[in-house]
Amino acid sequence: xxxxxxxxxxxxxxxxxxxxxxxxxxxxxxxxxxxxxxxxxxxxxxxxxxxxxxxxxxxxxxxxxxxxxxxxxxxxxxxxxxxxxxxxxxxxxxxxxxxxxxxxxxxxxxxxxxxxxxxxxxxxxxxxxxxxxxxxxxxxxxx
Length: 143
Prior knowledge:
Elements lengths: L4 H7 L6 E4 L3 E4 L10 E5 L11 H22 L3 E5 L15 E6 L18 H18 L2
């Protein structure tokens, strides 16, 4: 099993440019930033993705995301900010330690648009059915 790069940063913060840390999280710049100020926020405890974490652990991670995002907004004054979490290979996760990307954004920055263009209308009845199935599952899941 390959060692976890983010666990290595948690264990030795001098391995990265740490910009914030608390008892539960560490925030640092990635080696290859997508935008100026791009920051990763990771939990100190290893988990592959959000679904391996408890609600309390996710809450602490999101508290840190809000704190670090607020600091980035204060210092860099971006026009916007992407907050991204990818879970699983199909979602482009490459480091399997839960992390949240904060990407300060400015019009015309190098990152560009990444959402697909709006497509033709979809089957509204099928979307209504999916929404109903999700609501029903949510009622029984306990979350």
